[in-house]
Design brief:
single chain, about 400 residues, alpha+beta, 6-stranded mixed beta sheet, globular
Length: about 400
């Protein structure tokens, strides 16, 4: 199963000093939980960069620092241009695969410069991939999107998997709301990405639904992809979860897609959540969720109101009643284990954090500053939930 830890530096030093602080925290976490560094399957690093020149400089510095940490060089991290909370220079998010060593095999692999992890057990194969980027972050969103989606497809093919095996995907898009030429005329960057994602996804069938996903902005860094893919020999172990309060994103109408009414615009291809019910991973991957009811943003420019609505959406999504409707018996036992929270305006993070803690207590969390995929959205929350019972009915 996945355990996720967020590491925020305690000091106010420079980037190197804050990086070292996070690594010391990681050492402490690994030791206290009796983990091994080989169990780390995904690493995301969030950095405060002013622009792409600053981002490249800081990315190079981080990669140099990582190379000195021999225990972390076996996987390619995603270095993401999203400033962390509390004006920190850097934050780390670490996925650890927590299962008895005799039950799993963890294999490090590489393709086209991307170092990734394969986890095998009796029934499943799980693929953890991060840090998929284009060669030139100054290229158009269209060019970069094609490049990263092609790399993703090639890695899946290497592992004899398809896009339909992806259970969780993260899509980081610099200047996500900006209207750019992109070689196709003026078009929103997020819509360009969605159109190309649809083009790549079209080659496959999705009997278990699309991935759970997040499409989110960055202040710098071009286009970055991360994903988790799973194949399971057993039936009904991967279940797409609909939200009773929201229209499926892949069923949105043209009313909420940005662009000229006469142009062809494809929908975002993701599910509201994906339940993965394997011997070592009874989890729900919760997609990036915002204050959208039906397919419309709630008519309120208050971050407090939007946070409350977002939390209501997530609670409804992973409620026992909703999971039971999808054939998953939970016996009333579902919980949230981790959240990543994107807030548009830095000074509103304390308000958002207070509301999240009011509803969910002292949950493991990371707060980041980022544009959301609609101009009128102020906050977005994603996460991972735990299912205590995973009996799937024959519905």
């Amino acid at each position: 199963m996945n355990r996720i830890f967020s590491l925020l530096p305690h000091n106010e030093l420079d980037l190197e000093g804050q990086f070292i602080d996070c690594i010391q925290q990681l050492d402490h976490t690994i030791t206290n939980n009796s983990f091994d560094y080989d169990q780390i399957v995904k690493l995301s690093i969030f950095v405060n960069a002013k622009n792409n020149i600053d981002y490249i400089h800081k990315k190079n510095e981080i990669e140099t620092l990582l190379n000195k940490q021999k225990k972390l060089v076996s996987i390619t991290p995603s270095i993401i241009g999203q400033p962390p909370q509390d004006k920190k220079q850097i934050a780390l998010e670490v996925f650890v695969y927590d299962a008895p060593a005799e039950e799993i095999q963890i294999i490090n692999k590489e393709y086209s410069g991307v170092h990734y992890v394969v986890v095998r057990s009796q029934f499943i194969k799980a693929l953890y991939v991060g840090g998929i980027t284009a060669e030139n972050i100054f290229d158009s969103v269209s060019h970069q999107s094609k490049e990263v989606l092609k790399k993703m497809n090639e890695i899946l093919k290497m592992e004899r998997m398809k896009f339909s095996n992806v259970v969780r995907q993260w899509n980081f898009i610099e200047s996500i709301l900006q209207i750019s030429q992109n070689g196709v005329g003026p078009k929103q960057n997020y819509q360009v990405f969605n159109d190309l994602r649809s083009e790549f996804y079209r080659t496959d069938e999705y009997k278990n639904g699309y991935p759970a996903a997040t499409g989110i902005g960055m202040s710098s860094g071009g286009i970055i992809l991360e994903f988790i893919a799973v194949s399971d020999k057993r039936e009904k172990s991967i279940v797409p979860i609909k939200n009773p309060k929201q229209v499926d994103a892949h069923q949105y109408t043209g009313n909420v897609l940005v662009g000229d009414k006469n142009e062809i615009k494809t929908t975002p291809k993701f599910e509201r959540a994906k339940a993965v019910l394997t011997e070592n991973c009874n989890r729900i991957f919760i997609s990036g969720t915002a204050a959208i009811v039906g397919e419309d943003t709630i008519n309120d420019n208050s971050v407090e109101a939007q946070t409350e609505t977002t939390i209501d959406n997530i609670n409804a999504l992973i409620s026992s009643q909703n999971l039971n409707r999808h054939g998953i018996s939970t016996d009333g036992k579902t919980s949230k284990e981790y959240i990543r929270v994107y807030v548009k305006n830095e000074d509103e993070i304390p308000k958002v954090k207070s509301i999240c803690e009011k509803h969910w207590g002292n949950i493991e969390a990371l707060y980041l500053i980022s544009d959301i995929c609609r101009h009128d959205l102020l906050v977005e929350i994603e996460g991972i939930g735990k299912i205590e019972s995973n009996i799937v009915s024959e519905n």
